[in-house]
Amino acid sequence: MKTSAKPAGVLVLLIAASCVPFIADGYWLSIAVTIVMYTALSTSWALFSGPTHLIALSTGAFYGVGGYLVATGMSDFGASFWTMAALAPLAALLLAGAIGVATLRLSGVYFVIFTLGLAEMIRNLVSWVQNNFLGSRGLYVLTELEERHIYWMLLAVTAAIFLFGWRLGRSRMGFALRILGNDEEVARHVGIDTARTKILLFMSTGFFAALVGAIVAPRYYYIEPNVVFSPELSFLVVIMALLGGTRHLWGPLLGVVPFTLLWETVSATFPNATTMMLGVAFLAIVYLIPDGITGLAAKLKPRRLS
């Protein structure tokens, strides 16, 4: 994944983005929160799935773990939001490590199927425990945090993910990932521990997804397993990342902004057509722009010069 970017330009964009809550409120601030949330999730997803070419549909599982641990800690144990927001991503980090050890030796469709089933498995497990032992199905997340506070926290997490990706691209692990992405057999022959590299990166994806889920939890007020462990979120993250392109660190951002606006419009106008929209989007990306917007722009660039 290429990480070329002007530090001054990135800083200006970050400062401009941090001012959004001062000029937007209500509906548009809510849209901005959603865009920053999906930017964080899609970018961290692309850091793993971009170079490894493994389509992970586990984002919804880690996101749900983050949100539900915050809700459980606050509702059942009286813990503060900040304590649970710090513990939840660490728990997801360990969970991702265990899952990575068990599954990252799988390849192709087997890995996709397992990660798709992961969120469903956790959702059903949580529902079963609540129904049979706790007597309740949902949990309250009551804080004094407002939408703008959630926006700024998500923006800080997004900046941290970009910084992590930028440093990763200049590290030995980033070099190993580039070789691994081109040919895993060659990577093994030159002495790269491919399984360890993929597990560490998968753990970082789980960590960031759970952190985002923990921060967004107060936005729901009342959390149910069906809400936070939604497989739809995993598909949206994949579509947005692929739409923007995974070869550049900032590529997913180019997919998040237009698709979020389109998704919100379709959800409000034709709420029963969202599933069909996901299918159409997948087909359009696969057949029309398999390398995303950034890949399409790179192909068109020589034509303009000629």
From TrEMBL:
Keyword set, alphabetical order: Cell membrane, Membrane, Transmembrane, Transmembrane helix
Keyword Membrane: yes
Keyword hit for Calcium: no
Pfam family, one: BPD_transp_2
The organism's place on the tree of life at top rank: Bacteria
InterPro entries cross-referenced by the UniProt entry: ABC_transp_permease (IPR001851), LivM-like (IPR043428)
Membrane association type: Multi-pass membrane protein
GO molecular function: branched-chain amino acid transmembrane transporter activity
Subcellular localization: Cell membrane
GO cellular component terms attached to this protein's record: plasma membrane
Transmembrane segments: 29-48, 55-75, 81-102, 109-129, 149-168, 199-221, 227-243, 250-270, 276-298
Primary location: membrane
PANTHER family: HIGH-AFFINITY BRANCHED-CHAIN AMINO ACID TRANSPORT PROTEIN BRAE (PTHR30482:SF10), HIGH-AFFINITY BRANCHED-CHAIN AMINO ACID TRANSPORT SYSTEM PERMEASE (PTHR30482)
Protein name as annotated: Branched-chain amino acid ABC transporter permease
Organism: Nisaea acidiphila
Organism classification: Bacteria, Pseudomonadati, Pseudomonadota, Alphaproteobacteria, Rhodospirillales
